[in-house]
Amino acid sequence: MTASFHDQVIAILPKLRVQALALTRNRSVAEDLVQDTVCNALAAQDSFVMGTNFAAWMHRILRNRFISDLRKKREVGNIDDTPQSLLSVSGRHEDRLALKELDAALARLPDDQREALVLGVLEGMSYQELADVAGCAVGTAKSRVFRARRQLEVWLMGEEEGGVSGKTGAETTTRASSTRRKTRTARNTTRNAQQTA
């Protein structure tokens, strides 16, 4: 193994853990998935072309390994095993409640949308990189991120799918204020996660 390849593997590990948690929603299964991914990457090291996008290559291996494990009926756990350091916020009670609500909403998203949102927002991947990782068209990657964001907005605002919630003006204003607070909390959480990764 070349020193350069080894260094790149070490550097990408925190990002692989984030992706694995987004896919599996279980800490121990995510760690196993990352280890399996690294083993697969080491075995396929000769197939990697130096100078190409190493991060996309590794994320693709992880995603393929996850799909392969699903096909083998490997049991996947729940979101309660997500490490708190990934979701850390200030000690304010409102922030913790907003984060808990956001966490529950993320868990409800389809796997492909949750993965695209986490990699795009937390990891800062471009739509092209998301498409490379997921093996789909750039437009599909954009659509997944858009649909995930829109669905989270609907759930966190308490609206119906069509946008009609039957709320009074005062209730809507209160909800909008609460949603802005949740959005700020989510942004702060994203920044904290990026700084610790």
Automatic annotation (TrEMBL):
GO biological process terms held by the UniProt record: DNA-templated transcription initiation
Domain RNA polymerase sigma-70 region: residue ranges: 13-74
Domain RNA polymerase sigma factor 70 region 4 type, first and last residues per copy: 100-152
Region (Disordered): 162-197
Keyword list, A-Z: Sigma factor, Transcription, Transcription regulation
Gene Ontology molecular function, alphabetical: DNA binding; sigma factor activity
InterPro entries per record: RNA_pol_sigma-70-like (IPR039425), RNA_pol_sigma-70_dom (IPR014284), RNA_pol_sigma70_r2 (IPR007627), RNA_pol_sigma70_r4_t2 (IPR013249), RNA_pol_sigma_r2 (IPR013325), RNA_pol_sigma_r3/r4-like (IPR013324), WH-like_DNA-bd_sf (IPR036388)
Biased composition (Low complexity): 186-197
Gene3D superfamilies: 1.10.1740.10, Winged helix-like DNA-binding domain superfamily/Winged helix DNA-binding domain
Family membership: Belongs to the sigma-70 factor family. ECF subfamily.
Protein name as catalogued: RNA polymerase sigma-E factor (Sigma-24) protein 2
Gene from which the chain derives: rpoE
